[in-house]
Amino acid sequence: MLKSFIPLKFKLDSSITDKHSAGGTAQARFTQGFFQRSFDRKLLIRVFLAIFCTTILAFSIVAPTYRDFTLSRQNLHDIQQYRLVLDTANFLSAERGPANIVMSEEPSLDSAGMKRLVEFRQRSDAALAQLADVSDVPLGLHNHTVPPDMLQRVRYQLTLARSKVDRIAATPRAALKTAEIQDAIESMFEASELFRAVIAWNADELVQHDTGLSAPALLGQMLSDLREYGGRVASQIIAPLTTGQRLPLQNVIESRRSQGRLLELWQLINSQNALYSTPSLIKSRDEIERLFFRGGLDLVDQVIDEGRRESRYTLTATEFTQRFVPTMRPIETYRSEFLDAVVEKFADARTNALIGLAIVVLVTAIVLATLIGIILSVRTHVFRPLMQAHDDVLRLAEDRPIATATRPTQAGEIRDLFQAIEVLQGKLQERASLTRELKVQAETDGLTALLNRRMLDRFAQSSPIGERTNESMCLILMDIDHFKKVNDTYGHVTGDRVLIQTAELLRSQLRAGDLIARFGGEEFAVLVSSNDLSGAISIARKIRLAMQRETFTTPDGTPFRVTASFGVASGRRGERAWPELIELADTALYRAKSDGRNRVRFARNKLSAPAMMSATRDNLALERRSPK
């Protein structure tokens, strides 16, 4: 009977608590969710700030390296373009060699000299056209484009000089004049001078772009001048040699001036040996000293001496040119090897800058990836578990179950934290179990397992909740007759057996909705959830007859019987109504005892007259029929 009535008790008595608990839990869950979202948002903002600051720091590291790479890449491109300019100057200077030969020979369109001149002119024109072409600039680079008017002046002067050379080449030797040949040679010199302005402009552009290019730019310019003036030394005496006339003093002066310029340039170039000193360059310098300065210039001195003594020249102009030109090859070789070394140096610088940039970018990417990984790892393995631990603690505080399990990927400290939470959960479960046991002990009678007086009072004094719960009820107080005599006669053990057996009897006789409690020593109370007093009286009579017929035994098997008296009253639940209802039922019980025990009495002043009369008749009739 206790089991059947306890659910009703909890439905009525705990409904308010459940509602408040549910509301509190919902509010707590909302608060937890809001806190979780707020924390995630703040953490995300801080993560972005950390990544942003690290990215700025990484950019400050990568940017200079990238600038170094782009600068080295641009420098390599500039040096390569500068080499094209120097090569063009060399082509223009070299073109004078076959031109001198053509002007010193008899007219012939099929001669080797003419074919060689055509070849050299084509090479010069191609180089000039390449300088004027700015379409094929690599991505991210820029050209130091030679001003078109400078190139145009060079082309115009070159065309003019070539026309003079062609006119002389078409004239028989007998009709040649020294002044005409000298004029053609001077025109070629003028074309070279105009192009030297192009070299100077380009060198100045390179130095302005990067001062690190000043040394190779100036050395390249000096080597170009060395080649130019090396050729002029011979060209300045070729006109009298071609016509076989005495060498004019002006030609000698110009040739000697060119020689002085050559020696000055060579001294300056040798002073810069430490910048670009390789075995091949050292060998080329030795070749220049041996072949050009001692061989080529000696040949020039020989022709000058012959021309000033008014003696016959031992060499023709063609022979002189063919012997002198090979002495200048070491100069061209040295210039070419020097430019190769410069280009290689800047190519290596670009490669090293690219490698450095790749390393810096890779290291920076690794650092950024590591930082992001650490942040995500901390968020996943530290902050989220801490938030989970926070939620778990709140769930434990609200007596809600948790489903947190330690994972192998968690850090040792986090794993220890969740293990501590699991220990706490176990302790709380033990405490909850102990609390439930204590609650059962506090609310039930330890002997009969019925509700005790305090739990009965708590239920009856509580206000009814819900429309389906009836606030009216009837109270049946039952007292075992002569219970003290049973204890005195058979002992307290037998008395306890009587109480236990009586509780079992009550459970068997009552309905599922009725509440049974041990009210006192040998007193029991039954709450009937109805205001039907007649029905409650009938229940009491039913129990009285069952008690009267029940056989009780002592521990040794001796049978005996006991009876009980009953007091019945009708009233309401509530803090004020319950004491009044107890008083009425207790008064009725007292009358049952006074009337001879083994009786059922009810509170008369709470019934209408017809109900009292009917209940009285039925009660008297049953008492007369029942055995004593």
Automatic annotation (TrEMBL):
Q: Which Pfam families match?
A: GGDEF
The portions of this protein that span the membrane are 43-66, 353-378
Matching PROSITE patterns:
GGDEF
Q: Which residues form the GGDEF domain?
A: 471-605
InterPro entries, per database record: Diguanylate_Cyclase (IPR050469), GGDEF_dom (IPR000160), Nucleotide_cyclase (IPR029787), Rev_trsase/Diguanyl_cyclase (IPR043128)
Q: Known EC number(s)?
A: 2.7.7.65
- Tell me which SUPFAM superfamilies the record gives: Nucleotide cyclase
Give one GO molecular function term.
diguanylate cyclase activity
* Keyword list, A-Z: Membrane, Transmembrane, Transmembrane helix
Q: Please give the catalytic activity noted in the UniProt record.
A: 2 GTP = 3',3'-c-di-GMP + 2 diphosphate
PANTHER family, per database record? DIGUANYLATE CYCLASE DGCM-RELATED (PTHR45138:SF9), REGULATORY COMPONENTS OF SENSORY TRANSDUCTION SYSTEM (PTHR45138)
Protein name (database record): diguanylate cyclase
The organism encoding this protein is: Rhizobium sullae
